[in-house]
Amino acid sequence: MAEINPKKATERRRYPRIKREIPLKIKYDNYDTVGQTHDISCIGAYCTVNKHIPLFSKISIILLLPLNNPGKNDYCSVRCKGAVVRVERNPQDDNEYNVAVYFNEISRSGRAKLTQYVHQQLWT
To answer: pTM (2 decimals)?
Structure first.
């Protein structure tokens, strides 16, 4: 049986999602928490964070997108707001949570940066 190449498989989602670990910071209520994405699209992300955030919470997010500068560790920050649409305790670590976030407030330039990043990564 032939193996399917995920880079060439047809994406059925309206907005493609890529598996990438991108550092992020989330502000919720009176505290900040840090984490990283597991996958991301221009409308949302699935990430691991080190504090519990209740379902349907409204949060502020800062994503640190790596830039394509060989030999440099340059990042571009994208700020947005989102809503937590799924929360699960991380099965490998009881002190971490897997959280799905829908980006419901993002600037046009922020969405463009995120979209460009996702599309660049689809072809690398």
So the answer is: 0.82
